[in-house]
Design goal:
- The structure holds two protein chains of two kinds.
- Chain A has one domain: P-loop containing nucleotide triphosphate hydrolases (Rossmann fold, 3-Layer(aba) Sandwich), CATH 3.40.50.
- Chain A contains nine helices and ten strands.
- Chain A has helices spanning about 45-50, 75-80, 95-105, 110-125, 140-150, 170-185, 195-200, 220-225, 230-240, and strands at about 5-15, 20-30, 35-40, 60-65, 65-70, 80-85, 155-160, 190-195, 205-210, 210-215.
- In chain A, the strands form two sheets. Chain A has a six-stranded mixed sheet with strand order 6-7-8-3-9-10, sandwiched between helices.
- The mean pLDDT of chain A is about 90.
- Chain B has 14 helices and four strands.
- The model of chain B has no long low-confidence stretch (mean pLDDT about 85).
- Chain B is elongated, with a radius of gyration of 28 Å.
- By secondary structure, chain B is mainly α.
- Classes of the chains: A alpha/beta, B mainly alpha.
- The interface of A and B includes residues 86, 89, 92 and 133 of A.
- Chain B: GO terms for molecular function: ABC-type transporter activity.
- Chain B: This is ABC transporter permease.
């Protein structure tokens, strides 16, 4: 179990008669960039919400960072970071205040918070706007800030739910560079996305169709297997 | 504890940064306090009267003058027949019709006990009953004077009971002294319940609550982190409101003001707990406002501010027990006007304390980090 950051078996979530996630099984190794793909409504977000302890699984087992997602959700939360689709920093607080708040509720000391704040601001070049409310930042900066804040407590695993929605290709590029840096530093990245070019950046991808994981391998292997040129084609063949 | 401090700090930063919220929390309630305390009066100051004098005698004119001399009555018209008078009432121009019958003076002098008729427009019950009361006492006095004037000791004067009443706790019956503390209690509770109900829902709408739910924060920390800042807001409002009431209405502060604040804290915790409880069940701010208003309306109309709890039906009186507002108003009136001590308000304390525990436990219990 220790070599895996995430280990899931037969994970299922039903809402009444509707099965949103249908017995999915996969493992994610430590330090891996794991792409979690699927059409809208395929169950990606629901599956992810079970992994991060926001939603209780109906059936199946799962371990994240070594803890059971059924019984130890609160312990998992110490070791993971999460960046949601919705921008989830406080728009009326400044960059600094947001970092301080999230650092604070993760139980960081004052010293650690100051250090983290400087680090993040340096990395993202936010010194000029440090005292402006986050609402005033351009979307690309906001998203990179949200990513940085989600890792304020140095989690082993970071969950990113469509992190690059609505930003231009240049910013997306920058964003992925940061993701690589974090993966190189040993963090496990679990990312959902719509963009098939982004799927190519992942070490391995899984493709969800109607609640089931239909394919799971490295992008190259998948392209071979489905006799396709691009991940786009793979996706279309599967989703059809 | 440290985590809680960060939560509270963040909430205060947001409150002080919100340019619209701050005046809303301070100036608006004070304006309401001033306007409502002056306006919401049960005192009947002007009763429109129509007098139909069919007698046209010395005595009937004397009675008319007596009524007119009273500054609570204004004579609308003095028609000759009752039909005209009824028409005035139909048009809602008259509250009371006083009919003096023909031969009123003559039958009085004959000792025949003539009868005056009072017709009351009871659409406005309060105006009607109080007006009749005024009129009765005027006629009573007129009657007594008349008796002594004509020296006809039909009634043994010694047997007459003299009633001397004195108003305790509010000797001049200043209506604002009675209303201002109650309205202040109402406004404080109202503001805090809405603020707290809206707050969590707002975070849910924006999505920040999800971000908080993936942190290892404890449920009680989260709820307390919301409760403490709004408790402070409520206490500030209470303080400003008390100062304003003292300066503007010169309300009496007979009891220990500290008791008001200690009780106020317990009460605000109870009300905030309810607000937070509501917010846990609402997905949008609209839903939260609707549910909050459901409670606010019941609380306000059944808190004893406008209608005394004692005159409600028995079952309704029991309904006021889980109403934190009713206890708050009772306490503020007792302490400010009567100078009651802790022992006198122990029941209010007990009930409010229970409510605070129940509402907040439910709020913590119903706050779900995981669905």
């Amino acid at each position: 179990m220790n070599e895996y950051a995430i280990k899931v078996e037969g994970l299922t979530k039903r809402f009444g008669d509707f099965t949103a996630v249908d017995a999915i099984t996969f493992n994610v190794s430590k330090g891996e960039i794991f792409g979690f793909l699927g059409a809208n409504g395929a169950g990606k977000t629901t599956a992810m919400r079970m992994l991060i302890g926001l939603s209780k699984p109906t059936e199946g087992t799962g371990y994240v960072a070594g803890f059971d997602i059924r019984t130890e959700a609160e312990k998992i939360k110490k070791g993971i970071g999460y960046m949601s689709q919705k921008f989830s920093l406080y728009n009326d607080l400044t960059v600094k205040e947001n970092i301080r708040f999230y650092g604070g509720i993760y139980g960081l000391s004052k010293k650690q918070i100051t250090k983290k704040t400087t680090e993040i601001m340096e990395e993202l070049g936010l010194f000029e706007v440090a005292k402006k409310p986050v609402a005033a930042l351009p979307l690309g900066w906001k998203q990179r800030l949200a990513f940085a804040v989600s890792m304020v407590h140095d989690p082993e695993i970071v969950f990113l739910d469509e992190p690059t929605g609505g930003v231009d290709p240049h910013v997306r590029r920058q964003f992925w560079e940061t993701i690589y840096q974090q993966a190189d530093a040993g963090r496990t990245i679990f990312v959902t996305t719509h963009y098939m070019d982004e799927a190519e950046y992942c070490d391995r991808v899984s493709i969800m169709v109607a609640g089931k994981v239909e394919a799971l391998d490295s992008p190259d292997n998948l392209k071979n297997q489905y006799d396709s040129e691009t991940m786009d084609e793979v996706f279309l063949k599967l989703a059809r | 504890m440290k985590i809680l401090a960060y939560l509270i700090q963040k909430e205060f930063t947001q409150i002080f940064r919100n340019k619209a919220l701050l005046p809303m929390m301070t100036i608006l309630p004070i304006v309401q306090l001033i306007v409502l305390s002056n306006a919401a009066s049960n005192e009947v100051k002007n009763v429109n009267i129509v007098i139909v004098d069919k007698d046209h005698s010395e005595q009937s004119r004397l009675l008319t003058r007596k009524v007119m001399a009273n500054d609570r009555f204004s004579l609308v018209s003095a028609p000759y027949n009752k039909e005209d008078a009824m028409e005035t009432m139909q048009k809602n121009d008259a509250d009371i019709i006083l009919e003096i019958p023909q031969n009123f003076e003559r039958s009085f002098l004959k000792g025949e006990r003539p009868q005056l008729q009072i017709l009351v427009n009871a659409i406005n019950g309060q105006q009607a009953t109080v007006g009749v009361g005024y009129l009765n006492s005027i006629i009573g006095r007129f009657n007594a004077e008349l008796m002594s004037d004509i020296k006809r000791p039909i009634v043994n004067k010694n047997a007459q009971i003299q009633i001397a009443s004195r108003n305790w706790y509010n000797p001049e019956i200043e209506y604002t002294h009675f209303m201002a503390p109650g309205i202040l209690a109402e406004l404080t509770a109202l503001l805090t319940i809405i603020l707290s109900a809206m707050n969590i829902v707002r975070e849910r709408e924006i999505g920040t609550i999800e971000q908080i739910n993936v942190t290892p924060i404890k449920k009680w920390q989260f709820i307390l982190g919301k409760l403490v800042p709004f408790l402070c807001v409520g206490l500030v409002l209470l303080t400003v409101g008390l100062i304003a009431s003292k300066l503007i209405f010169d309300i009496p502060i007979r009891g220990n003001i500290g008791i008001i604040f200690i009780y106020g804290i317990v009460n605000l915790v109870a009300v905030l707990g309810l607000g937070l409880l509501i917010s846990n069940f609402a997905n949008t701010q609209q839903q939260a406002i609707f549910v909050a208003f459901f409670f606010i309306l019941i609380f306000v109309l059944m808190c004893g501010l406008f209608t005394p709890i004692d005159s409600m039906p028995k079952w309704a009186q029991y309904f006021t027990l889980p109403n934190p507002l009713a206890h708050f108003i009772s306490v503020s009136r007792k302490v400010l006007m009567k100078g009651s001590g802790l022992a006198d308000i122990k029941m209010e304390f007990l009930y409010t304390f229970l409510l605070a525990i129940v509402f907040n436990s439910l709020a913590i219990w119903s706050y779900k980090k995981q669905s």
